[in-house]
Design goal:
mainly beta, Exopolysaccharide biosynthesis protein, 10% helix, five-stranded antiparallel β-sheet, seven-stranded antiparallel β-sheet, single chain, 237 residues, NAGPA
Length: 237
Amino acid sequence: MTITQGSYGSGSDAATYYVADVVVSDATGLRSAFADNAFGENITALVSDIAAQNNAVLAINGDYYGFRDTGIVIRNGVIYRDEGEREGLAIYRDGSMRVYDETATDAQTLLDEGVWQTLSFGPALVEDSQIVDGIDSVEIDTNFGNHSIQGDQPRTAIGIIDDNHFVFVVVDGRSSTSAGVTMSELAQIMVNLGATTAYNLDGGGSSEMWFNGEVVNSPSNGGERATSDILYIGSAQ
């Protein structure tokens, strides 16, 4: 596991981002945890607190599933919600990862196919090592406030390079030292890192990377913002 810092763009458009390059021996080592270890809407906690409670070494914010009542939610191999609505991400026990249409399947089918984690935010950034067309104008859901996901923003994304080889990326934004990035710029960062598939997670003030007890990036709210969930790597990996 390595943590590196990079920059994208120049001048007033420059953005700082952080990359966690992670190889796990088994995909079940990529875990999720809920705020207060409870599933439900509007249950939130700081990333650092959720991470510490679960003996994490590395953590990023997740998809903020608790902000809404739709989406397929499978975490650590357990079904919590089966309300397909959008383009989701599935991480499989065999170490692979793919984007899928939530409305074309159901949670039990995914579980039977070997899905370990699902995330429900989006959009997909990269598929087959190519940047997905039209992502700078994509609409996720009306209840997300679509204007807030466009333009230069703080971002969080997950990508896969090869089976069991993942990259977590957090981009700082909304500050004098880091403008943030557009969706297509985030996708380009993921491609540059070698991701064959990549997916956008909750961003803005939620975007955070935590490693060995410290917040790595500079969240745009001036400090951590409470969220519903994290993705993390535990101390056993």
